[in-house]
TrEMBL record, chains A, B:
This is GTPase. Keywords: Chaperone, GTP-binding, Hydrolase, Nucleotide-binding. It comes from the Bacteria. CDD domains: MMAA-like. The keyword Cell inner membrane does not apply. One of its GO terms (molecular function) is GTPase activity. InterPro entries: AAA+_ATPase (IPR003593), GTPase/Isobutyryl-CoA_mutase (IPR052040), GTPase_ArgK (IPR005129), P-loop_NTPase (IPR027417). Signal peptide: none annotated. Belongs to the SIMIBI class G3E GTPase family. ArgK/MeaB subfamily. Residues 44-252 form the AAA+ ATPase domain.
Amino acid sequence: MGVELVAKARAGNRRALARLITLVEAGDAQAQTALAALYPYTGHAHIVGVTGAPGTGKSTLVTQLALHWRSLGRTVAVLAVDPTSPFSGGAILGDRIRMQSLGGDSGCYIRSMASRGSLGGLSRATGDAVKVLDAAGFDIVIVETVGAGQAEVEIAREAHSVVVVEVPGMGDDIQAIKAGILEIADVFVVNKADREGVERTVRQLQMMLHLGSGEHRDGWEPPIVQTVSNTGKNIAEAAAAVERHFEHLKNNNLLELRERERIEREWKMIMRESLLRQLLQRLEPQQYEQLLNHMAERQLDPYAAAKQAIETVLELS
Amino acid sequence: MGVELVAKARAGNRRALARLITLVEAGDAQAQTALAALYPYTGHAHIVGVTGAPGTGKSTLVTQLALHWRSLGRTVAVLAVDPTSPFSGGAILGDRIRMQSLGGDSGCYIRSMASRGSLGGLSRATGDAVKVLDAAGFDIVIVETVGAGQAEVEIAREAHSVVVVEVPGMGDDIQAIKAGILEIADVFVVNKADREGVERTVRQLQMMLHLGSGEHRDGWEPPIVQTVSNTGKNIAEAAAAVERHFEHLKNNNLLELRERERIEREWKMIMRESLLRQLLQRLEPQQYEQLLNHMAERQLDPYAAAKQAIETVLELS
């Protein structure tokens, strides 16, 4: 089923694309067949991560960026990733509002990804959904994360170009400092730049950038672009900054390096999960319960229990 | 070395305690020997998680809670966990300020834990540091997380009782909704309750609690306590609410259940990491590079590469 869906999705069939993403989200054997079929077509899209605290206007900014790139004839997919509880429903709501401005366009695709119970699960599912969109032929895939916690940072940093969104006057300090996202930014956007205090925010960011280390990641100094996403002001400048960063990566052989590192991390994550699954399959339920009981009774520490479980299985095979 | 340190730390030697935490933070073979030695002494402390957005006054609240419990003759350890970049240095600064009010007391111990590069690493190190403090005989171990992202939530939820701190007027909405921490709260503290808008915040929380599901986790309805941590107002009430929650867990056999689930998660995490380490040790560097090259060239997808790597190693053993 996966192989057929891949062909259809690549031919522009939106329903097949949606089903394919649902399929890979599940992360089961079927998902892996589909991913194997589409993997040869990946590696062409520009993956753009957009992150920032709630209230910075990220969603509107992403919509505006998508509209801008569409106006230049480029195809754009947006993955809105929400690691927060399904209780908030934010991603779904935001998705619906945006569908109104972008939904009718066949060169644009929007999809929300909600929390899957664990960080690792969401990270894996997002990475696999990006592969689907990449293989489907989108020029640009935007991964937008709700919030600016460590989880969002870990997801956003898997992109080629990371946009960090700030706004003037959200408390005394730049939000990004607390969230530890200054280091991963390739482009800063100070959104809602028609608000009071914008100069102060820009100055703080500049200071921060120069305090940071003296030299920037990959020899690239992150530009600071002031936008008003509600009116579209400087959206073209923000988009151009993101594209310049991608060119910088390509011209300095950094794209290949980043991709290689990303693939390596992903591969290790998959091996970790797969090994544990195989271990648990081979452990007798009785033995599993016994080890757990011994730990709960403080007779055995978790490291020693892990060692015992692994040794049993390695003898088996 | 670990065994000696454990004996000394349990006898009240603060320097041994500090060295022991540093030792287990490293997560190496020595750390495991130490943890095996101290594990039999764990399982007695009440682990209290405190989380909430930056600016809610968490640190002052935690200091006040610690002073209150000390005044009742209970020993208290505080782990201040900061998953943000070392760039901010917040944990270290906060630590120093608090040492002034609590530092001279032998029944109290404060320690900061900074980011260890990855979520998994910090989570693991925090869990192991809690074991040290538990084994050292502290009655209450407070795990305070900076920020309210998913990472902080995952760390805080490993506690027996989770305190979520809010303040009036931080934007239109309760911060906890965005961060997905409403569900894990056992006690809500609305701090800075002398500020305008406190009634609105309390009302929003109440509404949220009743909207949530109708029934609460473990049959416990999270109380909402209004405090002013700067003046100490209602600190005793907040502490009492936390203690009532612990009694509730004990009286309903829920403590054992929570502990068992926590141990199971921890055990799996350790097995996952250990299995990957053993796999990578057995893979020939040549083969590792070859698989990575094939993935980078899109000839092989990461799931297939993981399967190949694992099959090679399982044949070996």
